Amino acid sequence: MQGRAHGARRAAAIVSSGLLLTATSACGTSDDGDVELVIETFGTFGYEELLEQFEEETGITVEERVYGEVEDWNEQLTQNLAAGDGLGDVVAIEEGILLDVMQSGDSFHDLYEYGAGDMEESFLDWKWDMGHTPDGKLLGLGTDIGGMAVCYRTDYYEEAGLPSDREELSAEWETWEDFVEVGIEFSESDVDASFADTTSEFSNAIMRQSGDVMFFNEDNELIIEESESVEHAWDITGQMIENDLTAELEMWSDDWTAAIQEGAFATMPCPAWMLGQIEENAGEDSAGLWDVAEVPGNGGNWGGSWLGVPTQTDHPEEAAELAQFLTSPEGHLSAWEARNNLPSSVETLESEAVQEHTNEYFNDAPVGEIYAEGALELEPVYFGLNHFAVQQATNAEALLSWEQGQADREEAWEQAVSEAERIAE
Amino acid sequence: MSVVKSGARSRDESSPGAPREDPSPTQRERRERRSALLSRLDMRLSPYMFVSPYFIIFGTFGLFPVLFTFWISLHDWGLLTGNQGFIGLDNYVTLLSDAKFYNALGNTLGIFLLAIVPQLLLALLLADTLNRNIRLRGFFRVGVIIPYITSIAAMAIIFGQLFGRDFGLINYALETIGVGAVEWTNNRFASWTAIAVMIDWRWLGFNTLIYLAAMQAIPRDMYEAAAIDGASRLRQFAQITVPMVRPTIMFTVIISTIGQMQLFTEPVIFGRGYEGGTQGQFQTVAMLMFEEAMGRQNFGYGSAVAWSIFVLIVVFALVNVLFVSRIRSAGESERR
């Protein structure tokens, strides 16, 4: 349900979805007059039980259409929005596509008109804010978030003479400068592994902690060259590159997943849903080797979605009711219990079910508490239209070309700026 | 029709047994004229009716999109925001001064040469081998086409693992024999090579079978005569086989050119996205089109890129046609 992809499968999905235009039909009213709703999600939202409950309480029939990968769904969502037909009554909007969808904000109902305004209190501020269009319409209600932590290999840290206890380590790298220090110490040891996988997600995490603006100011003007948060991100990741702290891997590539399995690096950025990725890629042999520490700086987030009601629906009222039901604190709790999807509801984040949750694979780390704390600390930050396209071109591609030695700092930065300008144009 | 006649007819109707009145000369004439007209129309129109399904489908799914794409390319058009106004040829002006476009064009042509030249040569040799009396000939003939029917997803996973930098099989082999690992995605030439290998793996069998079909049309006695004259196998290949399949070779060159100008699938799989590497080192024109139109939702500019591909294909096809007619006329003058 988050911004993840599996290398080759993702590519294949891009290709096939580029070629295929799936004809889907929106739901309608059945012959006997009962309302039927369609909700479209991707990955694992953990809504099965909730939907049954909703059907029982309201007598409305709900069909869930689930897309495997977020990329498939994003492409489908965009196409059906552009076509003005074919979407479900409630649709999941992932973080990465949210601002693009905002561009056609008129294609969605303003959920304030259906009484969703009362729900503000229950959400994390930044999650609530991000669900609004530039002109103040409430387009989406928050579902899950990714949160942010750092996963690390305890055995390598021990071998390198670094603290391997998660609390000690969290205290050791309170700031990103400390984090680089730890990395340098690690790389000077004899451990046969890189300190981190790559810089790209670290740079994203750093930017988002600014509580301010990133590539765009609040008038949606590109400010990449003046932005303090971008400068900070490039400064820290630049130190990581110059000290050769990374394995120079491209995230989600086959090499990257193989490197997790082989234990070729010791540290990686770790939103809640990444835990499953690590467990899957590293396998049973590595059980207990990984642990989870707090992220340097102040909290963080990577991934998460919103639920919106497209104007294409014939039953906006019922659809809005469903969206509100699923994003209520109880809905968040149920999704957490079904799939460990980190809630964006403050109440649920503070609940015992989340706070006391531990993960066996990661040395029984109290992951619920770690992620909840990070999520509660994070200050809202302004993204701006095209943020994710710019982020991909700068923090993934340009930065990686420097990291992998294709370009020096200056060239990489020039590429970042020119691509950003091109996108923002 | 006169009142009297209609009265007569109504009487006839009341007595069904009575013989029907003969049609009047004018009516017969009219009927004959009508049937003549119909049969003329049948002769003239029905051929068009029979071929019309193709043209209707082509018009709907071929011609209309091409023209509509051109229309979009004259506008500032966002995928989600829609038409933002007419801007004339601005997108094309931008295109002509766009460094990314020239980069993509260079990549497309480079990969084209790197993939097609060895592929067609290899296909020719392979077809010649399969045309001989070798053991298990049927098996090998079927075998060459198997990659062509393999699913793209499966191919993506296999080649992604083969060309991995740190944990790929090919780099493992290269390191074992002491050559050293290759940066398959970062190095421009290496990435082109990897993509060319994927293309050739997939399309080699297709071209082989086309050549094989052409070779089987060559009369056997030519080879027998040549063999009696003492021509070696190689000489037979160079002086009988190749000249005889020359039209087919030109056909495959044209088809490959059209296909390669639209090169998209393999590099997208290879780089897992439209950007074609961190510095666009293997971004093709078709990938640029998708990146602009879908990734960055700049539909107008993406359409302009799409049209540039169309124009490029037309230009290349024309060059090919000129080339072919040159060869043909040269061949004819030789014979004279």
Q: Can you characterise this structure?
A:
Chain A: This is Extracellular solute-binding protein. Chain B: It is found in: Cell membrane. Chain B: One of its GO terms (cellular component) is plasma membrane. Chain B: It is a multi-pass membrane protein. The complex is a heterodimer of chains A (about 425) and B (about 325). Chain A has helices at about 5-20, 50-60, 70-85, 95-105, 125-130, 155-160, 165-170, 175-190, 200-210, 230-240, 255-260, 275-280, 315-325, 330-340, 345-350, 350-355, 365-375, 385-405, 410-425, and strands at about 35-40, 60-65, 90-95, 140-145, 150-155, 195, 265-270, 290-295, 305-310. Chain A is of the alpha/beta class and about 425 residues long. Chain A has 2 domains: about 5-145 and about 305-365, D-Maltodextrin-Binding Protein, domain 2, CATH 3.40.190; about 150-300 and about 380-425, D-Maltodextrin-Binding Protein, domain 2 (3-Layer(aba) Sandwich). Chain A has a 5-stranded mixed β-sheet with strand order 2-1-3-9-4. Chain A has a 4-stranded mixed β-sheet with strand order 6-7-5-8. In chain A, helix 1 packs parallel to helix 3. Chain A starts with 6 loop residues before the first helix and ends with a helix. Chain B has about 325 residues and is an all-alpha fold. Chain B has a single domain, classed as MetI-like (MetI-like fold, Orthogonal Bundle). Chain B has 14 helices and 2 strands, in the order H-H-E-E-H-H-H-H-H-H-H-H-H-H-H-H. Chain B has helices spanning about 5-15, 25-75, 90-95, 100-130, 135-145, 150-160, 170-175, 190-215, 220-230, 235-245, 245-260, 265-270, 285-295, 300-335, and strands at about 75-80, 80-85. In chain B, helix 2 packs across helix 14 (about 300-335) and helix 5 packs across helix 8 (about 190-215). The longest helix of chain B is centred in the first third of the chain and has 49 residues, at about 25-75. Chain B is flat and about 100 Å long. Classes of the chains: A alpha/beta (about 425), B mainly alpha (about 325). The interface of A and B includes residues 10, 400 and 415 of A.
